[in-house]
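Record minuted for completeness.

…
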Amino acid sequence: MTIALENHAGNVLEHPEDYRTVFAQVDSAAVGMCFDTGHFAASGHDLVAVAKEFAGRIVQVDLKDCKGPGPGAFVRFGEGSVNFDAVLREIMSGDCAVGHILVEFPLAERATMMADLRAGAAIAHRFGD
């Protein structure tokens, strides 16, 4: 079993230093990072730099787009600031043991759900089988 700890803007596990603290105190391969692209962007972090630093600890990726730093700034795929190609290229080329890439829907109307799913799946498929 692997425990994936997800970052969340405005919460206790938000910044790279939060992960540094956890990983320093819990030295176990069974505890890893769930890298949420939208929440790291909302918290104002350089996603590629975070991916490089924690390459050996990323076990899951949650795909979500974000307008930029700030709370509640989540948008449909392609309408935000997340450079999915750059961050996923870094994650997938490193020492990560990514078990899942999760497509996380933006807060939008149900009418766009299938288009949002296709957009997120297209991003994920560029980096996996």
Remarks:
- DSSP finds five helices and six strands in the chain.
